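dumping the sequnces here before i forget
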Amino acid sequence: MRIALKIWRQDGPADDGRMVDYQLPDVSEDSSFLEMLDLLNEQLIDKGEEPVAFDSDCREGICGMCGVVINGEAHGPERTTTCQLHMRSFNDGDEIVIEPWRADPFPVIKDLCVDRSSFDRIIQAGGFISANTGSAPDAHATAVPKEDADRAFMAAECIGCGACVAACPNASAMLFMGSKVTHLGELPQGQPEREARVLQMTAQHDLEGFGGCTNLGECSRACPKGIPLNVISQLNGDYRRAGYGGRD
Amino acid sequence: MATSTAPAPAARKGPPTILLKTVVAASGVFFVLFVLVHMYGNLQILISPEAFDEYAHHLRTFGEPMLPEKSFLWVARILLLVSVAAHVWASMSLWRRAGQARSTRYAGKKKTSYGRFYAKAMRWGGLALLAFVVFHILHFTTQTITVAGEYPSPAERVISSFGVWWAVLIYTVAMIFLGMHLLHGIWGAAMTLGLNTSLQRAEQIRFVSIALSTIIVVGFLIPPFAIFSGIIE
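..and the predicted 3d for all of it:
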């Protein structure tokens, strides 16, 4: 299939960047989206040009490393990660616009690569539980109701790819934060730090410069793991119960 | 972990984002309760113009002799004014934050936009509603704007005004805006207050937001259309 590409090229964090047109006359519809970009890069390298920089790691949809905005949609037209998207989701002769995640807390490093260490700092602020190291406790030592375990596991599916931020009109990271707060807050192990977690993570979220949720649901629709919007409501509820950061 | 070379973000000043959202939600809930009471008052005109005037008079003498005349009215007005100021200020702060969070927009256009049109109209629709509220107060409260002559009785002012087609049009358009704002506003307030805790609960919140918005829009539009069509004279 013949594909016309419009790709965001940016030499470095300080460069202004621009859209550049490329043509790929012969792409297999069985190739993945990232294989299509690999093909383009091979051609660019053959011509002595700089290849398009993009992030990827596991290429099986579980690591959260890849992610670009394809025709205005985070991870493209299917509900999956960019690496699990295949060219059969496009038509022969299509023009595909590829851009990096757009959010000021995700500065572009180069081309389609963005720096998501703001997510790391949100996790460091409170997205963890404190546990003694040593031998692992017995799995059945603490009983967890089935519904709680299911909900925690659903939220734990978040791979931190950042598609929620990319899709949100306010560039809010609240689906990401809500996932972590729900995942840990639903389990007994997450209770001792539950209030501190939501306050510290939210403070870091604001400090990084993410916007506020307006409850539209674009994040949840873009999420490759299908995390529901209600984790944001849980985040808000936990934040209220923690006293809005007003008490220490 | 890779060491970042990107500059550290500048510290953001101002209240926490979720606190601002809660201010919007809580003041919004107060407005919903207010418009329900307001609508109940408007519907008195269906009983008779005298009942409507009686209701308007009672608002001024509410609580007498324990409270001085108009004190209840002024407490309500001040509470509403403070709530409007808080609602607008917090929304504008969040709007500004959202703009700062994405200074570069996407070049690609989505084929299908999932967001509902009424949800996307919250900001400019809210400003349009604010403009309407100013007009509404100038029309019926201060009577700075007269539509069809001056009358001492509130019921006569209402009945004379809604005999004029453009007054009916302005209030109809405003109520459609109010309905749109409430459809997403009630949903958003429930989200922000932490009530959406499951998929079933989400369905219930959707139902309540649709039902309340419909009741309020229809309830407010019954008097103007009843007057314009000559059912009430």
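DSSP finds nine helices and no strands in chain B.
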